[in-house]
Give the backbone structure.
Amino acid sequence: RYASGQDMVSILQLVQNLMHGEEEEETSQAYRLQNVGEQGHMALLGHSLAAYISVLDRERLRKLTTRILSDTTLWLCRLFRYENGSAYYHEDDREGLLKICRLVIHTRYEDYTIEGFNVLYTKQPVIYISSAARTGLGQALCNQLGLPLSCMCRVPCNTMFGSQHQMDVALLDRVIKDDVESGKLPLLLVANAGTPGAGHTDKLGRLKELCEQYNMWLHVEGVNLATLALGYVSSSVLAATKCDSMTLTLGSWLGLPAVPAVTLYRHEDPSLSLAAGLTSSQPVEKLRALPLWLSLQYLGHDGIVERIKHASQLSQRLLENLKNLDFIKTSVEDELSSPVVVFKFFWQYSNRDQTSHAAQASTIQHPIISNERHIYDTFNQWLGEQLAQLVPASGVDVVELEDEGTCVRFSPLMTSAVIGTEIQDVDQLVDCLKMKIPVLTSTLQLREEFEQEVRRTVGLLYIEDLSWPGLGVVRYNYHSDGKNDDKQEKELEKINTELLKKLNELESDLTFSLGPEFGGQKNCVYIGMVAEDLDVSELVETIAATGREIEENSRLLENMTEVVRKGIQEAQLQLQKANEERLLEEGLLRQIPVVGSVLNWFSPFQASPKGRTTFNLTAGSLESTESTYVSKAQGTGTTPPPTPTSSLAKQRLPGQKIFKRSLRSSDAFSETSSVSHCDDLEKVDPRPPPLFTGQEQGPLETEKAEEQKEVAQATKTDTEDIQSDKSPRDCTKVEDQEGQR
């Protein structure tokens, strides 16, 4: 098929099928998170133009690529206040730092070009990165540079003073001194202007002074570098303009697809830059800047600044709203201007006795207090997933921080230009957050009560699963009667599965499930988030009663199976015995086919009819049917036992769902409810009203009483007439008819 090639239409159709697969058109559209506008088309056009330009003659290609590269570099240096800088355009955002490391190695080791890695034996190079840097950055650099992991030093962040996401400068100074004294060569320091997690900026001014002191190279990266294009820039970020190099990711900041990242650097020796791979003599390599060159011209300076400013306004809008919310804790570096907003749900146990906590600390700490960090991580993970699902245009995600734990992050500089986040999306995010906070607080408050109720209830087992965002996990214990482990496990699974099905059939606002797909406990019922009006005792009692009912039904079915099997065996024995008795009564001759027929014709044999037996499912035994043949009437048998039901016949208000506590707003409401309930009972009372009381009755009451008296007298008269009509002669006649029949 492919030997002769395909036409353009078939190839494009193949590409479309590969992009969208076999999904429906509506489903495939949901995965298009980025709306590619005109600025996106300009960036995509740059890749096509680069292919056309590459076929030009060599001289014309050199002039064109030099113009594109110089213009783009000049615009970026002016836009981000980086004077006298050069630019390297790369697809992978880590590739720029990798080439900078090679440039520094060539600069600090003069014989590196000739001797290679042999010169590194005398003085081992050391690269310093923050502990808050991107995961795997240090290992990736060592692998690409061919250096051992001992050449990478992770600098801890502040623990006492300052932001806990900033590099500890004093500790870094001591580490560098120790490395110098041990014969190592401090090579490069990677700082953050916006950490990947919380978006905090290192103290770049002090780090620059430290690098100048030890003749080190300072490289800065981070999302906060985008604010350098604004009119107002914080002093901490403005210090990045004095660094030796920085990496800019313009694609995510401006919403431009398939544009390269840019590393701006300052270096005076072009030969070393060429040796490190920062510059290239190939004109085609310089065409990497063409998509960015087209996009920057389309947006212009004002368009670029407006996009970055819009993202900063979104984060500021969210931060202002979060200040007015209870139980929300923010972690931002600068409350006046923070491009990244990190927040989490946090509820203080203010209603608990602090003195009891102090007493418990010396003995046994409370489970909720000891596992508080883990529970909050679980709840904030659920909160972030819910917000991302309810407001997808906000671009929020969940991030794991070393000190704060699991948090929700809003970084519009990385997402707003791509997915088109607006002010109304932020307002909707705040509204959804206000709706989820009461659910989180009520669930957190009722977890302990639920645990205590389950532990007090016979037949239920509380399963502690700190990774479950909900009220808790419960399991109904199956009382085994000497069964093996496999059969007991199957029976336990059957009962808890049926219990989950029964609970989901109830008309309640709760969610019951089998738990997470991976990592959850087996044969358990997981209860999700709850509201503050939940009646925990009723919930636990219902679970226990339903489980007992399922277990009793299961035992009844097992016993019935055994009884039926024994009944069948007994019936077979009785049939065999009846056949033997019939053979003795009729004789041997009557069993011969021809002789028996002749003998029965001359002398018919009249055997006494005997009834068989029936199996009574209610009593679980065989019963004779002789009484049925004699009386010619089917016996009623034993009355079946009542079906086991829950004792939770709780009276509810109209429209009130199960597991909901009644409103206790005022005493008047309770009195009104009780009075109305008594009135209803009086309406359905089957007894007739008294004909005479100690109080005087009105004419209407007297008339009703007389009518009821007359009806009762008439009913009594009719009954006596019917009984008198049945004479003994009629009864004898009926008995004779039954005998003839």
